[in-house]
């Protein structure tokens, strides 16, 4: 067999920057203000929350002021002034390490939140079930999905202003994810150090409700704050109960929930930990992850406001200078830390556009080890049944428009030949009849697109294991390149590279059928790859060739796939 020259059809440019032609020159598109679905198809614009919150605040203040006139409420506040007693031997004051921890936490949060919103903007809809059916979302930042079969998930993505998103540009999710996951790793390390120090120094007693007294005290503080006659602060020694509860929720509930819901969106973990993922579906995880973000945003606004309005100098000395005085030292350090944060905030997007490869390298260095740890999975099918099949399955990518493909398609792919070659003992060309005569493999599995949507389908065809047995890869073969008939969003055909060991997984297959019918055109007819341990972009559609190689640095742009070369995705992407 003569080896096909598919490599020559690839775009071999080594992109160094994010330019105007980013993601195939996708024009900016700003979506709509976030809205939440009420009932079947009415939508509530969340911008209304701004005047509503103001209104409720005014009402709340009036009610609280009225309450404080009542003798019974006055007695209640006297009995529960605001803080519950700490156990004997509780540490006094706030140690210096807490200041550092606090700064690093806040600093990392900037990048985590900005890049997280960019990830959300790539599929600006949230659902409760793993079916990402248009119209079933509970929140959207985009118009309703048009009734157009050519409308792809990529077309649905929206732009964020550069200083808000990280990076922000439309469909910059590849880079946003390096920031998000990379900063997450550092944030988690910081968090673990924080937990360890909390528990070894005894500081934890200040953050954990230890008696039911916390509840009436928190209520009392809430009334005092709202009535604008505030409790006396004693934050150096003991937080008031409302403060304690909000810190407890943030440190011991929201932060772990961020981690768990974050991991709940990854194919590697979801295909591995069935028990968890059958309840915590990717979309439930994504929705909860978003609600955790909302908690953090509200917390940050209220926290900073109260720090600055309840004795700013003293409070800043507590956190930044480890003392309880009224000097300007804490303020000075705080101001300096603000400068650092603002500079980093402003620089992050332009630096990312100028050095995307560096961002990718650092991001991969941080998250790669964890990713590889969870990638060694070999789940079996059988977790989903036909009942789970999604009524709607988003389509993605640019459909093939070559003459070659058009002719094949017009003739029901009778002349289609899949070339399987490279570092193998027995290179072959397989027609559809050949593929259909091989042992049939099928599985009902869930697709995870990097953008965040998901869908369950039944895939039928040939296990990659069967193909490997037929062609017999040589020992030098380490990677498997899948070439598509279709172009990518920019120049050159779409391709992706997979680690050879993943080709033997039970759930790695060449699909010829989807939900019992021959693969529809938009989903990759006549042949597409499924590798369920990875994100969707790695599952090349409209496959025309499979090449076994020892190294992919000279294939295309050298980064292991079309989206890697053009948009700096990772060549392994299981989280
Ligand atoms: N040839 C080709 N294959 C591709 C793509 C593409 O753009 N071109 N997009 C990928 C992405 S990002 C996803 S999520 C899945 C989508 O598969 P579906 O359209 O069947 O849902 O296909 C993958 N395979
Ligand atoms: Mo995707």
Keywords, separated by commas or semicolons:
electron transfer activity; transmembrane helix; alpha+beta; binds the ligand Nc1nc2c(c(=O)[nH]1)N[C@H]1C(S)=C(S)[C@@H](COP(=O)(O)O)O[C@H]1N2; binds molybdenum atom; Sulfite Oxidase, Chain A, domain 2; 17 helices; five-stranded mixed beta sheet; 14 strands; five-stranded antiparallel beta sheet; Cytochrome b561-like protein; 575 residues
In the predicted model, the low-confidence regions spanning at least 5 consecutive residues are none
* Fraction of residues in β-strands: 5-15%
- What is the 3D form? elongated
Cα-atom radius of gyration: 28 Å
Number of continuous helical runs: 17
Tell me the distance between the termini. Answer: 38 Å
Helix content estimate = 40-55%
Number of self-contained structural domains: 2
Please outline the major beta sheet.
5 strands, mixed
Subcellular location: Cell membrane
Domain Cytochrome b561 bacterial/Ni-hydrogenase: 100-317
Membrane topology: Multi-pass membrane protein
Keywords: Cell membrane, Membrane, Transmembrane, Transmembrane helix
